[in-house]
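ok so I'm stuck.
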Amino acid sequence: MELSVREIGYGDQSINKKMKDYLNLFYAMIDKIHYWDNLSTESRCSILATFLNNFADILYLVNYFDKYHSNLKNNTLNSHIKGVVKH
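replied:
not stuck anymore, here's the structure
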């Protein structure tokens, strides 16, 4: 994460502050999507909209993440690690 922040252009003194901001944002996202399966589509869209400003098609992302989650549940961890996915 530090390398990514440095690539953006932040210096040594501001890296710790930016890393703290990014980690807080990450944990806020995790907190909001913890019960993703129990949420309605509208709730999922509103959650993503809080983190993504000016994104045109939030419903596309909700459907994408639902398909990705379904794919993860239907395949073993070993198949994802080795890059072999059953279709």
